What does this fold into?
Amino acid sequence: MIFTHSGIVSTFQFFIAKSIFMEAKTLHEYTLNYPLLHEIIQTKPVMWLNPMQKSMKDLSTLPLSVLDMEEASKRWKKFESFLQNTFPELQETHGRITSPLKRISTMKRHLNEENTPFIEGDLLLKCDNLLAVAGSVKARGGFYEVLQYAEDLALKHELLKKEESYEVFGSETFRNFFSQFEIGVGSTGNLGLSIGIMSASLGFRVTVYMSADAREWKKKLLRGYGVTVVENPGDFGAAVEEGRRKTQANPKGYFVDDENSKTLFLGYATAAYELRQQLEEQGVLVDEQNPLFVYLPCGVGGAPGGITFGLKQLFGDAVHCFFVEPTHAPSVLIGLLTETLDRYCTQDFGIPLHTEADGLATGRPSAFASAISQYLISGVYTLNDESFFKLLYELNHSESIFVEPSAAAGLMGPQKILSTDYLLKQSIDPANVTHIVWATGGLLVPEEDKKAFIGKGEK
Ligand SMILES: *Cc1c(COP(=O)(O)O)cnc(C)c1O
It folds into this structure.
């Protein structure tokens, strides 16, 4: 074996020395077949366009359909009265979990001054950084999964009468009933917040298995809700493993499996209805000549995958979705690029899982989400931690909007894509594109941490 690139040699030596997971021969074959892997392994920022993407008319066999989305949307509706009664923050929206869609022209001007190519189309921010109660995009998937589980139990045990208002989910009877069941989840932080808060609010016993990178304030906040927090010394994968094992040992235990959940995925997907309505209200025309480009921060791929699935159902080929991952946690990118989906984790390729974008610090992708995203998404790009903080600072400076590091990732999207031949190949006029950056979290970050993040980005 001859290696011309010193970085690859050292990666190989690392593998031979440790002889873990993947054989050197296998790794060599992957890097030969997928040259981009060289750069990914060296944790360089990369841009990948998806050769497997299919037009919606050529897609027949997805495990979910628009009917599942409609059902999910109806389930959300039924729970609105319960949500409104339970969380004062949801009074104003009458129990709906929604976030604003905001034009960020000053940020666009700033990006155009700093970088090329020039962004001509509109730049909008989908502000899930402001999602009430859980403070991140996880409110969509996580809340939905807990609500569906609660509904399943109530129906199965004939507690819920037909046509009865779901306000009863807040009653003492229901709380007492749910207290015999246990919900568990593994998390780097945000999923734990959403599952923990919603489960505890319904009366479940709930345990969140936090990875070592989870922030202290999130643990404290959860304990305040009566959630049991178990601190796992390992990474996200290790926390998930412990959570899965311990929760499933309880016959009345239910594990929310971020690496494989169809229900989380559907919860995220319903965001598409909300976005469609907002685009209509704001007079944004969307068709194949006037497409939407959407940039989504990606961890296991459930949130961005679900949102992409939802948008594709509503807008078809007029929407183009791009994921963004940290250079030190490119798990979905590796799975899609090598067509191995969830077979490997990033550590198998010698990439240490190390990023301050904690919502994205996941080594292994969701099997369920990746199997769908492989045909729907247009591409993936990666950014290093420095870029996350820089973008976080610039957004705060130009628009007075605070997002957490993970959530700033999409802001680099328009220029990343405009600098490829993607638009040319699809005959898209750059002036007609509406760019939507999905800001995924930030509301609950304590003031002190906010200041520290902004300060770091300014440097
Ligand atoms: C979880 C999370 C994401 C990504 O969601 P996945 O389902 O893990 O891909 C993005 N941003 C933030 C802030 C998150 O917490």
User: Anything to note?
Assistant: DSSP finds 19 helices and eleven strands in the chain. The mean pLDDT is 93.
